[in-house]
Design a protein that fits this description.
With 427 residues, this protein is α+β, with helices and mostly antiparallel strands. The chain is built from 9 helices and 25 strands. It has helices at 5-12, 28-42, 83-87, 102-111, 192-199, 329-333, 336-342, 385-397, 410-426; strands at residues 69-70, 76-77, 91-95, 113-114, 130-136, 139-142, 149-152, 159-160, 165-171, 190-191, 204-205, 211-214, 218-225, 228-238, 260-264, 271-276, 279-284, 288-299, 304-314, 319-326, 346-350, 353-357, 363-368, 373-379, 399-401. Strands 7, 9, 10, 11, 12, 13 and 14 form a 7-stranded antiparallel sheet that branches. A hairpin with a 2-residue loop joins strand 13 and strand 14 (228-238). The longest helix has 17 residues, at 410-426.
Length: 427
C-alpha cells in the first residue's frame, strides 16, 4: 500500500515529530504486567524524590489516565487498538483517499488486505490517516477523530484491514475524560507539576520542554508553551514505529528489522504455491512449454510473498510474462476505470470488455482476488487487445486459491469472454 503519512502529518499537525506505530489493546494481562513492573521499580525509588526518574519504568496502574482518548459520544481511541475495535463501537473506517462508496468502505474491513511494513518503509512514514464515521443505519456522520488517527499492519504478512492497528493519534486535553480535574490550582492552565502528578512519574523531557510519558506499548507526547502544558496537540504513538525524539526515546523504540528479499525459483516446477494478500495461491505452470525466468519477492520471517513473476513460452510459441503483486488501497477501493485514470493507464475496448494497459495493448493490468492483488500479463509481439485479453483469461484460469473472488471464478470469466466473442462474431 502506498505510504502517504508524511505529507498528511505535516499538513495537519505542524508538530515537531511524525508518528506511526503499533501497540496492543489493553487487557487484564497487560494490567497485571504493569502492576508487577510498577511495584518492582517503585521499590528502587530514590527516597529523596517524590517521582520515579528512571527511564525504564512505564506509567503504572496508579496513573490517573490510561492513555485512552474519548469522543463526545463515549467512543474510545488509543494507540494500538485494532481497526475492528473502532468498528465495534458503531463506526465505519477506511484509509484516507479511499472511495466514498459506503458498501466498499464496509466490505473493506474483511476483504481488503494490507501488506506488512518493513524497516526501511517505516522511516518517517506509514499508512494513511484514517477516515472515521459514526454510523446510524444508512447515515454516515464524521467522527471527531476523523483524519486524526493513523494505522499500520504490525505483522510480517498481509492481514485484513480490520486487523491492522492504530499507530498514532493527534488529540487534545478535551479528548481526555477527567482532564479538567488535573488543574488542581484552578488557574485554567496545566503546569508541569500537575501533569507529573497525574502519572506519578517524572517525564522524559528535552530542551523544547516536550514531556514524554511511556506506556506499555506507546508513548504520549505533551508539548509545552511558556511554562505550561499545551491543550493540543497531544500525540500518542506506538513504540513499534516511533519516529522522532531519537535521543530521548532510544530505549523505547521497537522498530522493525525486516526487509524483502528476491529469490530465483526452480523453472522446472509443474506448479508453485505462495502466500499473497490474505490468501494462498497456486499457479499451474504446465501452461508454459518452457520457463525462462521465475522469481518472487518475499519476507524471510513469514515466507510472505509480495510479488511473483514468471516469464516463459506457451504452447503457441508466444512469450508471456505474468506478475502478481500485493495491491494497494486504490486497487481495492476503486473500479478498474477509476484506478486506471488515477494511475495513468490507457484503455481500449475489446469485444464486450475493456483492456487496461501501461504502454500498449499487449500488456493487460487488472484486479485479482477481490481487488487485493494486481495481475499484469504481457504478451510479446504487441498482439491486438482481444488476443491479450484472451491470454489474460487463460492465466486467470490457471491460478487457484482460497482468496479468490467467490462471485466469479476465473473459469467463469473465460466462459463469459468466449460467449461475448461468439456473440460479437454472430452480429
Amino acid at each position: 500500500m502506498k505510504k502517504k503519512l508524511v505529507a498528511g502529518l505535516l499538513a495537519m499537525a505542524m508538530v515537531t515529530s511524525m508518528f506511526t506505530g503499533c501497540g496492543k489493546a489493553k487487557d487484564d494481562a497487560d494490567s497485571t504486567e504493569k502492576s508487577e513492573s510498577s511495584a518492582d521499580e517503585k521499590s528502587s525509588k530514590d527516597s529523596s524524590s517524590k517521582l520515579d526518574n528512571s527511564k525504564g519504568r512505564v506509567v503504572g496502574p496508579d496513573s490517573k489516565w490510561d492513555g485512552v482518548f474519548t469522543d463526545s459520544n463515549g467512543k474510545r481511541f488509543w494507540a494500538g487498538m485494532t481497526i475492528n475495535e473502532i468498528i465495534e463501537q458503531g463506526c465505519a473506517v477506511s484509509p484516507n483517499y479511499f472511495s466514498d462508496d459506503h458498501d466498499v468502505i464496509m466490505n473493506a474491513a474483511t476483504e481488503m488486505s494490507v501488506a506488512p511494513l518493513t524497516d526501511s518503509e517505516n522511516a518517517g512514514s506509514g499508512y494513511d490517516c484514517l477516515r472515521v464515521w459514526d454510523v446510524d443505519g444508512d447515515s454516515f456522520s464524521t467522527n471527531h477523530f476523523d483524519q486524526k488517527v493513523w494505522f499500520y499492519n504490525p505483522y510480517p504478512y498481509a492481514v485484513p484491514f480490520s486487523e491492522c492497528k492504530v499507530s498514532g493519534i493527534i488529540a487534545g486535553l478535551g479528548d481526555i475524560e477527567g482532564a479538567d480535574e488535573w488543574d488542581t490550582n484552578g488557574d485554567d492552565s496545566l503546569q508541569f507539576e500537575e501533569l507529573e502528578a497525574v502519572f506519578d512519574i517524572a517525564p522524559i523531557t528535552n530542551e523544547y520542554d516536550t514531556h514524554l510519558y511511556p506506556f506499555e506499548d506507546f508513548v504520549v507526547d505533551f508539548m509545552a508553551d511558556e511554562g505550561h502544558i499545551m491543550r493540543s496537540p497531544i500525540q500518542s504513538d506506538c513504540r513499534d514505529v516511533l519516529v522522532g525524539h531519537d535521543d530521548e526515546l532510544s530505549e523505547y523504540k521497537r522498530n522493525f528489522t525486516r526487509e524483502y528479499k528476491t529469490e530465483n525459483l526452480d523453472t522446472s516446477l509443474d506448479s508453485y504455491t505462495f502466500k499473497m494478500a490474505i490468501g494462498e495461491y497456486t499457479i499451474d505452470l504446465s501452461y508454459f512449454d518452457t520457463i525462462e525466468e521465475m522469481t518472487r519477492t518475499y519476507l524471510e520471517e513469514s515466507d510472505y510473498t509480495s510479488k511473483f513473476f514468471v516469464k516463459g513460452i506457451n504452447a503457441d510459441g508466444e512469450y508471456v510474462q505474468v506478475t502478481l503483486e500485493q495491491g494497494d488501497d486504490e486497487l481495492y477501493c476503486y473500479d478498474m476505470e477509476t484506478y486506471a485514470k488515477k494511475n495513468t493507464l490507457d484503455s481500449e475496448a475489446a469485444g464486450g470488455e475493456t483492456i487496461y494497459y501501461r504502454t500498449s495493448p499487449y500488456n493487460s493490468v487488472s484486479k485479482f482476488a477481490n481487488g487485493t492483488i494486481l495481475l499484469d500479463v504481457s504478451v510479446d509481439g504487441a498482439p491486438d487487445a482481444a488476443h491479450t485479453l484472451s491470454i489474460k483469461h487463460q492465466i486467470e484460469s490457471i491460478i487457484s486459491g482460497d482468496g479468490l473472488d467467490a462471485t466469479a471464478t476465473p473459469e467463469e470469466d473465460v466462459e463469459a469472454e468466449t460467449e461475448t466473442e461468439a456473440e460479437t462474431e454472430a452480429e
